[in-house]
Amino acid sequence: MTATYTREYWEARLVSLSLEGRCFINGEHRHAVSGKTFVRPRPMDGKPGAVLARGEAADVEAAVLSARKVFEAGVWRLKEPSEKKRIMLRWAKLIRAHAEELALLETLDVGKPVLASLNVDVRLCADGIQYYAEMTDKLYDEIAPTGPNARALVRKVPLGVIGAITPWNYPMIIDCWKLGPAIAAGNSVVLKPAEQSSLSAIRLASLAVEAGLPPGVFNVVTGYGEEAGKPLALHMDVDMIAFTGSTAVGKLIMEYAAQSNIKRVALELGGKSPLVVFADADLDAAASAVAWGCFYNSGETCHASTRLLVQRSVQERLIEKIEAVTRNDIMLAHPFEPSAQIGALVEQGHMDKVLGLIAAGEREGARRAFGAERVLSETGGYYISPGVFVDMTNDMSLARQEIFGPVLAAIPFDTEEEALRIANDTIYGLAGAVFTRDMDRAHRFSEALHAGTVWINTYDMSNFATPFGGFKQSGFGRDRSVHAIDKYCDYKTIWQQFG
Ligand code: NAD
Questions:
Q1: What is the residue with the minimal CA distance to atom 9 of ligand 1?
Q2: pLDDT tens for residues 118-128?
């Protein structure tokens, strides 16, 4: 199959691809009420891409109204669970049937290799919708133990209208982490995708309606954060904001909730995850985990292993191995090239920010081992080669700030105690890993690491059955797994007295 996916194949598909950039409200595409639009440059070559509706408060208003109407009418909420399941399963099937189109849209928007979009992002999105489709007819309520003279039903009810605000790094995956459980639980959703990555969200919404999801259950308002995201988060008739993005905007979302109707918030925020390698570890396995963990998706990953804590005696050997994996296995190329393992960064502004952080790090004394330079600039696209800085200390900015680019900070340590102190010395707590052959130490360390996910002798394993989210300023609330359903529900107790 993959053999047919040449660069020419994708170029040809691109010619006939429809770049629908209008909002999707109440089951139909709509221009912004103001008529305003904006153009999304393509990260792979800097050329103009899709024209998108520049949604604002009036568009949010229309979307929330349609979401509320369908919720109150009970068209979706009160549907037979088995019918809900059939519709959501059809939706997952349609996503798979349109996999190439969706992959192309995702790559045009964010610059990742189209084969990664196809084999990872689209696949996981369909799997996520299917996972929650399967749950729709398996959600039970409870009867509280109140004694024989009364009965108290503890019902789990949907919240109502969910505002979902999502980032650009894994748009389809993160959208489905919100849409799957929120819709399976009976809610309506207004999604505000990142301004950089709206195309796949708009297509997901039209496929949902094609699958039979009633109009108004899933709406998309495109536009900028300040102009469309903020009115959504401030809206008095939105019951919850499910947000994934930066810690700075996460804090604003909490403020908006407090300023408006005390809506609930769930926040999946930034990270600066430590990957800790002890001298007794399998260094080949560690090198591969470090390189893929930090550089996959050009480092635009919230849980990227951007801080390598390495026991001093093996630092040099490990860095050599990381360099070999990076040079031999992690091919950086135009996103349509079948060989590309990583592609472009999302936009010029972000590339400039990453290059600026690298330059600032060097001024502070960070020593470059290899890479971390702008490459393929002749294409007009936004590419930075994966790179490593060594002999770092944890107070340097490259070790503290979430760079969101392919840049690894290697920090040497001597003792386990020191490694743990450095690993936890961050405002974030999203993920981490420990590499050692000593299983007592591995478990001791994993328990002590302040992070929502910890891997032992591996990195980035994930599964829909496992909750994902952070501690500390990486946020709260969990995506994925059966537990995500709870976030979109509330408990309601109904008493009845006998006799
Ligand atoms: P961002 O915070 O800039 O934007 C995220 C979303 O918020 C976008 O849709 C944006 O338009 C919107 N937004 C911006 N300002 C807003 C405002 N004032 N009011 C309402 N909405 C607003 O983040 P980004 O640059 O798109 O994504 C990168 C960040 O996302 C990184 O910090 C990364 O770690 C984080 N992230 C976290 C996870 C996780 O699961 N923890 C996953 C992916 C990305």
A1: 194
A2: 999 999 999 99
